[in-house]
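Title: Prediction job returns without error message
Component: structure pipeline
Severity: low
Priority: P3
Assignee: unassigned

Description:
Job completed but the reporter wants confirmation the result is attached to the right record. Sequence as submitted:
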Amino acid sequence: MDAEVGIIGLGTMGSMAAWQLAKQGVSVIGFEQFGIGHDRSAAGGESRIFRTAYKESPKYVPLLQKAYELWRQLENESGDKLLNLTKGLTIADSDSDYISNILKSINQFNLEHQILNQEQAKQIYPQHKLRPDDIIIVDEKAGCLRSQRSIVSAVNRAENLGAEIFEYSIVQNINQKQNKIELEVDNKIFTVNKLLITAGPWSKKFIPEIENHFKVKRLLNAWFLPKSGLFVPNEFPVFNRSHSKGSYYGVPAADGEMIKLGIHGDKLILDATEDLNKNISIDEEMKFSELVKNHLPDLNENPSRMEAYMEVFTSDGNPVIGSLDKDNRIIIMTGFSGHGFKMAPIIGKIAVDLIKGKKIDYDIIQHCTPSRFI
């Protein structure tokens, strides 16, 4: 055997799994088709939001609470600053599902928070131009993650603990035999006892039996320069906002100068990963400019930078986490549908438990098994 565990894809989840496995003394060999910390997939764009008040489902909250501890642990081990707590805002109509879903997770887990009416919100967060029925819920344990730096930190830490990492290495075939798994990588054969597939949008080619339940989508982010000094991270928290035409999010940029915005739901479906178009049209740019004009008037209306990435979504919005075979030899972790980065360290730890055949204590994982699609 070249290693006990092989990993295909060292992005968001693969990097964290490599770190957690190597930390427990498991021999690991990992393959990444691009460079570590690349910008083609869902971790691109330098930053991601961390939050604990969770509109998607309260069942994710225990994962996020544990992920917070592990983010701090990775910071301590690597010496890198990865998570900056800025607080987090949810902005929406007080009667909307957006607000009620956030409150469910807050109430169920007694999360530290504030609820601001419009007058209070105007005083504390004047950057946002609010509508008459808008309120703001403040998640006290939320902030900004340095996404690509986090991946590099986790992989570097895994290497320091003994993991073997291959960049620019494409896995062409997987051959499962009775007592081993053979990986054909750039015309070489590597053998492992167990395999973890964390290839993001590229996972589809390794799991044809459920590929119809995945959609690869193009994600756009835009960066805007402030007109004033109101947008420094300690005064401008990360946020999600629902409005009459949809929803979007914002993050203080990693460079501390610009503000990054992304639009939920407004994403082009790609037939193949090779179809990703990194060129940005004028119409796409104007959608972001309209948001800024209507909601964030103290930003310059025209983006100073725009970039395109990819994410993979499942048909039910929940990720795929679990074994693809009866022998528990091949584990798949993909399809996090746009909200996986914040919980990546705990997903990496769950990968270790699955590989070792341990019981998973988080209820949400029961809804994420590959078998629901087979």
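Comment from assignee: result matches the submitted record. The chain is about 25% helix and 30% strand.
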